[in-house]
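Action item from last week, closing it out:
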Amino acid sequence: MYKRLELHNHTTESDSSITPQELIEYMVDDQVDAFAITDHNTISGHYKIKELLKQHNYPISCIYGMEYTTYYGHILCLNLKEYVPWENINLHKPELLFQAAKEKGAFVGVAHPFSYGHPFARGCRFDMKITDFHSFDFIEIFNDPEPLHEVNERGLLWWEELVLKGYPLSFTCGMDLHGKWDMKQQFATFIEGTPGGDIEQELESAIKNRKTWISKGPIVEIKINDGEQSITFTIVDTKKPGFHLNTLTPYYLTLRTKKGTTVKQISTEAPLTISYQDLEDETILIPKLYEFDTTIEHLICVSPTIELN
């Protein structure tokens, strides 16, 4: 099964208007499988959410994390077991903090890297100078409330450029909730899992193996047929509230490589198979799904990077 994750959320433990209990109930009402608590510079909400989940037996899992909020950028940590002091924060060496969090078992990502910074929102833009792109795990390529072109498209393109250079980076998205905002027609993160499975282990597997999707609803399932020298793509409906697949709507699959982008029309009714020969020996492919046309406004899914031997 595919699990829908909401990986960037705040509560009244930092600067949100919703309490930990309201956050849980809001996520349950929107049919979320698991959500993260990522308050700014505090893990004080972890215990409260653990107790609430235990007392009320909510049908949802929590991923415990934090958002390091600095004057030079924001860093998301997921599967964070304990607070990691950030005296090591350094404009020219963010790897010090990345490593400190990873040593505690956390996964580390850059949040909304191209957000507006000074003078509108000092610190929201990621201005730290990364020199080791193997030192962190993921990039938040879509921060749903942020402007599409000025922030999110740039985040997506940055991640794509790094992946095409060979860096093993996963990707996520997030609502960055500070209140009860509408999550319909917004991107969510999806991973593979099992009913009742350990969400921390499933998230660990997804990030380590770079098998995350972001989608407004449908995802593109990928099957590599080595024997037949081809790849099969299938549109799968996750039933995310607010999005409806329509057999009359034209859908397009794009594959970005180092050489350029291939565009294929794809049906909701039948898989699409592309031969290796059509890919011109490219070994790194980034699949994306669009509706109506291939402009960023009509992007509905980014799928895991395909790496061919």
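Closing note: The domain at 2-214 is CATH 3.20.20.140 (TIM Barrel).
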